[in-house]
């Protein structure tokens, strides 16, 4: 492959190509070294927060919308200033140390606690207290572990035990979940409830989550005490910390900052151990982009903070002295929150951006009559201007059409970053025009501290995720089993490998997966398949491992779902599939004929009795698999089973195809000699069927 020297967006390291690998690419600012030039004095997350807190103590930082109970509506944003947050961070950090020391059983345990570097869980929705708790944990050289519900209750218990958590800080309903599981998480010594005493009492009386006998915080404390766990409110812990005399205990760069759990292909989630160096390098690599044109960044916070993308971007805003406005929690109303906040920066995921695209195109370029004709002309003219480097604004067409679409998010918007899954080209281009703003695709993973590549500023080309970000190196390596080779013409293809100081330390207590992923000399093998383009950008085209993302950024582990489905007596074999630009997953299911045929026949008999219409069906296995009514009832049956088995929404099949020919070793060749599904072959075999399933309404 020859690079286009006239349009090269990356630095190609000389003589770096070896057999089976492409040349190494770097950011254009990293020719001599991988040092990130922005904020070189920042070494830890502690530095990130205190740099801004000391410089701008009277500036707004964490925003929230109070709920007016009389009006039954959320009010305008109110803000905690950097200085206010700093006091709470110091007091809460000291308080967490103090209450943990109250619950040690030996001199040895006390010494371990005082050495720091132990974990505290945060189990909450996005709100100011999340980041207050995060930086409080950091202030004592402890590290956070974010808990979330998408991995399931059993995974919550696994994570608490695996990371040896003894203290949980969370909102009321989440801490109640922990208390209900306390026999399975015996290391928990204390829980800290984020809400105030008044809010806790009101919620307990309104919803009675623990029955009629628990209607106040006093009742809840008694239950907790009986379980061997002390319960505090966050205000109480801050007051304890203020009186304790415990000083900040700043972390070192190589100390653990956080452990993020990512769902594995099968089995339990993996704990990704990330240091302060990892995350500060990542935050610094993005920092320059957030303060566009010298404007203080303002960001809406809605992305889950136990995930890498959401966590990293909040550190970036803090580093840049910006404002974080927390959403009210209803994703369907996220743009109402944006209109109230007026952010300059919106961290997007393809599913949400595609929803915007559908809404805007229906009202503009796809509108009937003269309105659609004018909108299409406006879009075409603005698109040509943008591609010719004339920017995102047009005085006539914006006043006539696009200021309305822009104001749907924010009149101050200057950057949307799309991550977690690929964004389609037509969506990216249309939203750049409709929102009058830069849209930049980025690529990273939990293991890379959410950095890796990012499109360069105001790059309006499509179909790629940019060159290496600041401080990162990229190369591809052969994946012969999938026929992806670095010698492919016209462009090299292979597994994306990333190197830099943002790469994680290890998978917690998992030497095998650590060694499989950290392949030597600092390189992390991502499992993603990329294409290296002539301009030094990377395009993500496939996934080496079976785990994949769907458009909202959630990881789907198909084997996990298949195993659960095959527990159902009506299911013999299952193949689950999906795409990163689709919002749901589908399945190819081979029913068990011994149970399926009588079950299906009974449904047809029942329908005949109810409607008086005898549906013509030969009753054979093949004909029943093709019967639309049977397929619909079958989908209902396995969907309910999936929910009862603990699968969450995005893991439940939305469409199915019932296959009457079983997967086998010799006939269709879809099984290995050990009867495992050959996923790559199944994808090829059912390509047309899968495409038709997604194309159908």
Mean pLDDT comes to 91
Radius of gyration: 27 Å
Which stretches are poorly predicted, pLDDT < 50 over at least 5 residues? none
The total of beta strands comes to 30
Q: What is the count of helical runs?
A: 23
CATH class of the domain at 82-275: Alpha Beta
Q: Summarize the biggest pleated sheet.
A: 8 strands, mixed
How is the CATH topology of the domain at 82-275 named? Rossmann fold
Proportion of strand residues: 15-25%
N- and C-termini, Cα separation: 42 Å
The percent of residues in helical segments reads 25-40%
Main sheet strand line-up: 11-10-9-7-8-12-13-22
- Reported CATH architecture of the domain at 82-275: 3-Layer(aba) Sandwich
Shape: globular
Q: Which structural class should the secondary elements be placed in?
A: alpha/beta
Short description:
The protein has 697 residues and is α/β, with parallel strands linked by helices. 38% of the residues lie in helices and 19% in strands.
Protein model, in words:
Helix content is 38%, strand content 19%. Among the domains are: 82-275, Rossmann fold; 350-414 and 427-436, no CATH class; 557-695, ANL, C-terminal domain (GMP Synthetase, Chain A, domain 3, 2-Layer Sandwich). It is globular, with a radius of gyration of 27 Å. The strands form seven sheets. Strands 11-10-9-7-8-12-13-22 form an eight-stranded mixed beta sheet, with helices on both faces. Strands 1, 2, 20, 21, 23, 24 and 25 form a seven-stranded antiparallel beta sheet that branches. The longest helix has 20 residues, at 82-101. Helix 2 crosses helix 4 and helix 2 packs across helix 9 (234-244). The protein has 697 residues and is of the alpha/beta class.
